[in-house]
Write a structure and sequence with these properties.
single chain; about 1000 residues; alpha/beta; Arc Repressor Mutant, subunit A; Rossmann fold; 4-stranded mixed β-sheet; 47 helices; 14 strands; about 5% strand
């Protein structure tokens, strides 16, 4: 029996023994899955739910890590018995062998007896998951507590009816100790004391109730007061009083002038619920967001669902046509039917009309008359206690008591492929585009052929509804691919809106210009300067790049705050750090303004200088204990770094080369080999007069990246030139690194003797230099060569020494490599269990680094060990995880390894035909990449081929192998992920 307690604690036991799920994210994932046992959840929705403030890729990576930790914790109780996970969804199985305290509370029916209630409610030890602050936890916690309160109220009622006064004393006090000040508990206790004839305790309990409610700013209800007065007078009977409130009859539909939109409303379920919940607790709610984000449509939709909540109606006032703020009160009066009287000012008439009304007033499009809207709202709300006001604006009203709800863009996918059509249809922006486009092009439908173009359109338009609708209107005259290609000139493309719409909503340019025209000159200057940033920026970056002359550094935060308030800049918080960004449409408008200004070149130069300094500061720390922080920093700024590089390649090749060498280590670890090689090659080609040390460094990286891609012919010349340049300037460290790269090339080609000689020469040069990191790396490489040459004892000694060195340096990337290499050596020696421990540590290290390509390779290595242990189901599962990560990040070399891993399992423990097809797919992929296997890997693969040929027969093998070579990589991935497929 798996016993799980989430109420007041987090505790998992199996057969009375604790099961430790160590990390908080894994605990949260486990809790969410078991609370919804029997339901399958799509991975992207889980990632967004549990990590709502993270980028999509980061959230999915966090989910994968949390799932791995959870599986590891449950491995002793057979995780597959309870968990069901594939590449699309994850779920917790409903099982009679699982007991969950929260589920027991939910099972209680309205017919449960007092004893049944007591039995189950005894398991409620406190709020759900104390100390967890995920949004879903808060909502579920409130729901479960409401359910608990309902059952507790029923229990109090039943105990009173049965005259069980001692049980009331026990359970009433239990309820009170949970800290929510439950009036039904105090009432039940007063009744119990009265039944026992103890009137002093009745009075004392009532005083306790008063004090408890006073602490949270409430007074006792009329029901509580009436009970106390009745008990004092001796008039109350105890047999029939019920603690369960009677439901009120629904009210009739209220009056309204809400407009009836001509098109359907898509998505926004979460935002609609938020509006309804917030209006239940606040009297002034403002929806903010950039122009065209859909504030008005959302308000109309939510308001229609609230009609029964306001006896005196919901009234909508459109302020966009007003040119003078003084016209705001008359506009409101006209909608409400209030007429100005000679005897009193209009504001007084409005107050008199609204004073006793239970009414929701909606003020739409307030940004251009914001001051007058704020004054009107503040006056009416202070005078009319039952009035609620809902406003839409590009900035908040800025008055006391206002609750602000930013309206986000519609959800949109990052990438699309043929196999994701069903998933794509779940995104709000895709739904909107497809529906609006079909209205003007009846034969248009989302298909595998156009899915990528539609995704590009919605992604480039940031999920802004108005922009998407304008783009959809263009399908009458352009193909989807042509629309996507022309969005770099979106302001000229998106010019045909509804003729009846507001003028500023008829073209995308007019929409943005409306916001631009409402700004001060300093705000406009900052907007155009900030448009130089790609992917966001920090306050420090804004101060360094954007402030001079009319904007001083001390003013940056003030004017940046103004742009945030006006919904032109978005604030994100990641791991305690604040970043700012613009929607791409807003940024492109700013770029237009920057290009037409005299400061364009100067701002780009400042931008380049800032990010060159960042890259150089980072590169010296990427292989230290601070590496995780600096990798994250470069990840966040990657768009800016690439933008700065492109700018410099056209204007300053030497500085461009300096930036590429500063980024080379990052490119290598992140697996951006092709991108790094191309950038360094361009910079080297244009910066032939660069300083020798800089050029030597660039040449070494150029050769290393070429070798990583299997292009060995392009490594000799740059390595020789880099060695000679380093020798000319007396740079022994540079010479050692050139020799290290030369040895790597020999090793990849299978010439282990030559590789060993190069590595040892490099180590000799390091004797006079204190470069422990390079020494540790060379030691790892020597260990690899010894392993390939069959000298396992020497290999093991070198790898253990390397692990020790990297641990001491705090270099987790180097440690990851050394751990994997040590695992390979232990495999060669037949010490499979020991190898598995090192692979598991390498997975932990990869997750700590946040490196998806390393995670993919580590999972692949562990899968191989499990295969050697003949644990084929687990090996298959880890190959799947590795393949999914590799597919997500485009790590095709690892995809080939996964194909070969699946083939191993299939050839010995499944379908030989499937194995042959996968071997063919891997072979084709390796040829396309120019990334052949090294000699040691080739020998193992040859054995797999022989086993498969013997099982299948030579002719059938050749046919299946050719079939595998012929299919596209996307199809090959899908085939590999389908189990038991011939």
């Amino acid at each position: 029996m798996l016993e799980v307690r989430l109420l007041g604690t987090f505790e998992v036991k199996h057969k009375q023994k604790p099961v430790t799920i160590s990390s908080r994210p894994a605990q949260s994932l486990f809790a969410y899955l078991i609370l919804s046992a029997g339901t399958s959840h799509r991975r992207e929705k889980l990632a967004g739910l549990l990590w709502p403030d993270s980028l999509e890729e980061t959230a999915r990576d966090n989910l994968r890590h949390a799932l791995w930790r959870m599986r590891k914790a449950l491995s002793s109780v057979s995780a597959t018995r309870f968990l069901r996970a594939n590449d699309l969804a994850i779920g917790f199985e409903k099982s009679s062998d699982t007991w969950l305290d929260a589920a027991e509370v939910e099972k209680l029916g309205e017919s449960a007896s007092a004893d049944e209630l007591i039995s189950v409610l005894s398991e409620y030890q406190g709020e759900l998951l104390p100390g967890f602050y995920d949004e879903w936890v808060v909502l579920e916690r409130d729901r479960l507590y409401f359910l608990f309160e309902h059952h507790m109220a029923r229990l109090m009622s039943l105990l009173q009816q049965e005259g069980r006064w001692l049980d009331i004393f026990d359970w009433g006090e239990r309820w009170i100790k949970l800290g929510e000040k439950p009036e039904p508990a105090y009432r039940a206790l007063m009744s119990a004391h009265a039944a026992k004839g103890d009137m002093p305790k009745v009075a004392a309990t009532y005083e306790r109730c008063l004090k408890a409610l006073e602490e949270i700013g409430f007074e006792p209800s009329e029901q509580t007061r009436a009970l106390y007065e009745s008990l004092k007078a001796g008039k109350e009977t105890f047999e029939t009083r019920s603690a369960v409130p009677v439901k009120e009859k629904p009210q009739e539909v209220s009056k309204t002038n809400l407009p009836a939109p001509l098109t359907s409303f898509i998505g926004r379920e979460r935002e609609t619920e938020e509006i309804k919940q917030l209006l239940a607790t606040t009297r002034l709610l403002t929806l903010t967001g950039t122009g065209g984000i859909g504030k008005t449509r959302l308000v109309i939709h939510a308001a229609k669902e609230l009609l029964r909540s306001y006896p005196d109606g919901i009234w909508w006032v459109e302020l966009a046509p007003l040119m003078d703020g003084r016209l705001v009160p008359p506009a409101v009066a006209q909608v409400l039917g209030v007429h100005e009287s000679p005897r009193e000012p209009l504001m007084e008439s409005l107050k008199s009309f609204l004073r006793e009304k239970e009414l929701l007033l909606i003020l739409d499009n307030c940004e251009h008359v914001i001051t007058e809207c704020a004054q009107l709202a503040e006056y009416l709300l202070t005078q009319c206690v039952n009035l609620r006001i809902l406003t839409t604006s590009r900035e908040s009203l800025g008055i006391t008591g206002e609750m602000i709800l930013p309206v986000p863009a519609l959800s949109f996918p990052v990438l699309a492929n043929v196999s994701q059509l069903q998933t794509l249809n779940e995104f709000e922006s895709i739904q909107l585009f497809a529906e609006r486009a079909a209205a003007v092009h009846t034969k248009l439908a989302l298909t595998p052929e156009n899915a990528f173009a539609v995704t590009q359109i919605c992604h480039q338009l940031d999920g802004i509804p108005l922009a998407i609708e304008l783009a959809a209107a263009r399908v009458k005259v352009l193909s989807l691919e042509e629309i996507a290609a022309r969005l770099n000139d979106r302001f000229n493309l998106l010019t045909q809106g509804s003729r009846t719409a507001l003028p500023r909503h008829q073209t995308l340019r007019a929409l943005i210009e409306w916001s631009h025209d409402l700004l001060s000159e300093s705000e406009r200057v900052l907007w155009r300067r900030l448009s130089v940033f790609i992917g966001g920026w920090t306050l420090e970056a804004a101060e360094m790049v954007s402030t001079e002359d009319v904007l001083q550094r001390g003013q940056a935060l003030e004017f940046l705050s103004h742009l945030v308030d006006k919904s032109l800049v978005i604030v994100d918080e990641q791991n305690g750090a604040t970043r700012y960004r613009m929607l791409e449409t807003i940024r492109q408008y700013g770029q237009e303004k920057l290009r037409s200004s005299a400061e364009d070149s100067r701002i780009h130069q400042r931008h380049f200088a800032f990010f060159l300094e960042l890259a150089e500061n980072a590169t010296s720390r990427l292989l230290t204990v601070e590496q995780k922080k600096w990798f994250a920093e470069l990840d966040s700024e990657y768009g800016n770094l690439m933008s700065a590089l492109e700018w410099a390649l056209d204007r300053d090749p030497v500085n461009a080369l300096q930036l590429t060498t500063a980024l080379a280590q990052y490119w290598e670890v992140r697996g951006y080999i092709g991108e790094g090689r191309t950038a360094i090659g361009r910079a080297l080609g244009q910066a032939r007069d660069a300083p020798k040390e800089l050029r030597a460094d660039g040449l070494r990286w150029q050769a290393k990246f070429a070798a990583r891609q299997g292009d060995y012919a392009q490594t000799q010349e740059p390595l020789e030139e880099s060695f000679n340049l380093s020798r000319e300037v007396g740079d022994k460290q540079g010479m050692a690194r050139s020799l290290h790269n030369t040895g790597m090339v020999f090793s990849l080609q299978g010439d282990y003797t030559a590789a060993k000689i190069s590595y040892e020469k490099g180590r000799e040069l390091l004797k006079d230099i204190d470069d422990k990191r390079e020494l540790a790396a060379l030691t790892t490489s020597l260990g690899n060569v010894a392993n390939y040459m069959g000298d396992y004892e020497t290999a093991r000694r070198h790898q253990e020494e390397s692990v020790t060195l990297f641990r001491a340096l705090g270099d987790k990337f180097g440690l990851f490599i050394a751990l994997n290499n040590l695992g390979i050596v232990l495999e060669s020696q037949g010490e499979i269990s020991s190898a598995r421990r090192y692979y598991e540590e390498s997975i932990e290290t990869a997750y700590e680094l946040g490196e998806k390509n390393l995670v993919a390779y580590a999972l692949n290595g562990l899968a191989h060990v499990l295969y050697l242990e003949e644990n084929y189901p687990e090996a298959n599962r880890y190959y799947r995880e590795s393949l999914l990560v590799s597919q997500e990040i485009g790590e095709r070399r690892c995809i080939a390894y996964c194909f070969e891993g699946f083939a191993k399992i299939a050839s010995r423990h499944g379908s030989a035909r499937r194995a042959a097809r996968l071997l063919g797919a891997a072979n084709a992929l390796r040829q396309a990449l120019g990334a052949p296997l090294i000699q040691a890997e080739r020998e193992e693969l040859d054995q797999d081929v022989i086993v498969t040929q013997n099982r299948l027969g030579e002719r059938a093998f050749e046919e299946a192998f050719a079939e595998g070579r012929a299919i596209a990589i996307e199809q090959a991935v899908e085939y590999a992920l389908r189990e038991n497929q011939n």
